[in-house]
Amino acid sequence: MEKSTEEHLDDGAIVDGSVRRKSVVSMKRNTTGEIHNPLTGIPKDRLLHDVEKFAHDSELTDALPYLFKGALAAQSPEHYDSIIDLDEDDREVLRVERDHRWRHPKALYLTIILNSISAAIQGWDQTGSNGANLSFPQAFGIGMALKEVTVPVYSAKNAPTVIRGALVMSWQLFVAFGIMLGFSANLVVVNTGDIAWRLQLGSAFIPAVPLIIGIFFAPESPRWLIKKGRHRAAYQALLRLRNSPLQAARDLYLIHAQIQVEDAMIEAREVAKTDNMVTRFIELFTIPRVRRATQASGVIMTAQQMCGINIIAFYSSTIFREAGASNIVALLVSWGFGMTMFIFAFPALYTIDTWGRRTLLIATFPFMCLTLLGTGFSFYIPESSAAHLGLIALFISLFVAFYSPGEGPCAFVYSAEVFPLSHREIGMSWAVATNNFWAAVLGLTFPRILQQFTPTGSFGFYAGLNLVALSWIFCFMPETKQRSLEELDYVFAVPTTTHAKFQLTQVLPWWVGRYILMQKDRAEPKLYHFETEDE
């Protein structure tokens, strides 16, 4: 790719050949999708000089040998065997990281466990409300709302690139687990009379206790510490989260390098003097690279509500009662829905980092549309027939089975990883707010939709929204699997029109030829060209 010293910051590229200088040396607008490591092209002697200066400025001279080797490994992550400065032990550490994706320190898994408990609380809260829907309307005559969560961004910052998707998706896995536990709690207290709804809503306090205790033992996000200039603390955190000092030093310097690039971008845009939360929020919609991440995360977060999952999560008991089930049967069938969601989330632990987020979504949305249609049409079966309730339960279970490895884990994983470091917290907050806004709209409007459209019309309406969401995902969502959080800057430097045009004119014809016309020799077109794949 031709390089240039032209400034094209308005085009959204956050790239740099040097982390030592404060000025920006950027490339032309990224219309080809070519991906570059921020350390690529720096001569060895200058890189080592920069590392030494970083170590002295950060009071990390005791870690200088690891920082030297780590920077070289970060510069050529796929060619560590040819780096003469690494000894055999160093190469073995990097080899194990490549070949044994799940071999990581206990501290990393502790953070994921704590995040998973947070997720379980979220799911439990939702199903407590689901069960309470059968009794508290009589007491108060009201709907319900959601609580906001931002836990996935913490997982994304701490997780290694190779399994980031699987670790961050533990959020959705344990939301599903919490939903199952919540339905179980609903069943336990269903016969407690007038206080049943109070117990159903309050039972989510149970998993909150170990979370409150455990969070004091979890390491802080290294990226957040580096942004605050606390490099020693960041290095200590990475030593707990990685298997060796070499890997900790490598990730420390790579994160530092990207933050330097982003600082240079901010300085070049002359916004450093007004850099605050309001400024960063405005830049979610004004800086092209960040705007594309905002748009993509908005698509997937909105699609999670458009697909209709929270109809089931919030109102499954109500839906089954509409189908003629008793309160006990409605809760039992809802419990089965929760169990299905939990079990079918497990395949995504593997596929989310191999198939990719985008592929999972495109593969599952058509089936969610069909199963919602099946659910709606099943209401035409007379209630006197056993097939009436049976087919409704079957199609809802199939819907959940397709949702759980697709839109379920991908929404929060994707949104937690797409924003640059400078805008990650505010970006994820906006993405979650978008999700919760549409969840609130759904939660408040579905009873009215159910009344006006009838169950068949309601499910048909959401089946149509699945097709709309699928078209958005196809056109406006780039793939992010197995790309470092830093490399994603270059993915989102590709203009939206370029990405959408490529999908419609290149990928769609290829897909039709490959899977409908069965032209198996057709090569898949690629928009993004990674250095490590070209070499």
Automatic annotation (TrEMBL):
<dbReference type="InterPro" id="IPR036259">
    <property type="entry name" value="MFS_trans_sf"/>
</dbReference>
<dbReference type="InterPro" id="IPR005828">
    <property type="entry name" value="MFS_sugar_transport-like"/>
</dbReference>
<feature type="transmembrane region" description="Helical">
    <location>
        <begin position="195"/>
        <end position="218"/>
    </location>
</feature>
<feature type="transmembrane region" description="Helical">
    <location>
        <begin position="459"/>
        <end position="477"/>
    </location>
</feature>
<feature type="domain" description="Major facilitator superfamily (MFS) profile">
    <location>
        <begin position="1"/>
        <end position="481"/>
    </location>
</feature>
<feature type="transmembrane region" description="Helical">
    <location>
        <begin position="296"/>
        <end position="316"/>
    </location>
</feature>
<keyword id="KW-0813">Transport</keyword>
<feature type="transmembrane region" description="Helical">
    <location>
        <begin position="328"/>
        <end position="352"/>
    </location>
</feature>
<keyword id="KW-0472">Membrane</keyword>
<protein>
    <recommendedName>
        <fullName>Major facilitator superfamily (MFS) profile domain-containing protein</fullName>
    </recommendedName>
</protein>
<keyword id="KW-0812">Transmembrane</keyword>
<dbReference type="GO" id="GO:0015798">
    <property type="term" value="P:myo-inositol transport"/>
</dbReference>
<dbReference type="InterPro" id="IPR050814">
    <property type="entry name" value="Myo-inositol_Transporter"/>
</dbReference>
<dbReference type="GO" id="GO:0016020">
    <property type="term" value="C:membrane"/>
</dbReference>
<dbReference type="InterPro" id="IPR003663">
    <property type="entry name" value="Sugar/inositol_transpt"/>
</dbReference>
<comment type="similarity">
    <text>Belongs to the major facilitator superfamily. Sugar transporter (TC 2.A.1.1) family.</text>
</comment>
<dbReference type="InterPro" id="IPR020846">
    <property type="entry name" value="MFS_dom"/>
</dbReference>
<dbReference type="GO" id="GO:0022857">
    <property type="term" value="F:transmembrane transporter activity"/>
</dbReference>
<feature type="transmembrane region" description="Helical">
    <location>
        <begin position="359"/>
        <end position="381"/>
    </location>
</feature>
<feature type="transmembrane region" description="Helical">
    <location>
        <begin position="426"/>
        <end position="447"/>
    </location>
</feature>
<feature type="transmembrane region" description="Helical">
    <location>
        <begin position="166"/>
        <end position="189"/>
    </location>
</feature>
<keyword id="KW-1133">Transmembrane helix</keyword>
<dbReference type="GO" id="GO:0015791">
    <property type="term" value="P:polyol transmembrane transport"/>
</dbReference>
<feature type="transmembrane region" description="Helical">
    <location>
        <begin position="387"/>
        <end position="405"/>
    </location>
</feature>
<dbReference type="Pfam" id="PF00083">
    <property type="entry name" value="Sugar_tr"/>
</dbReference>
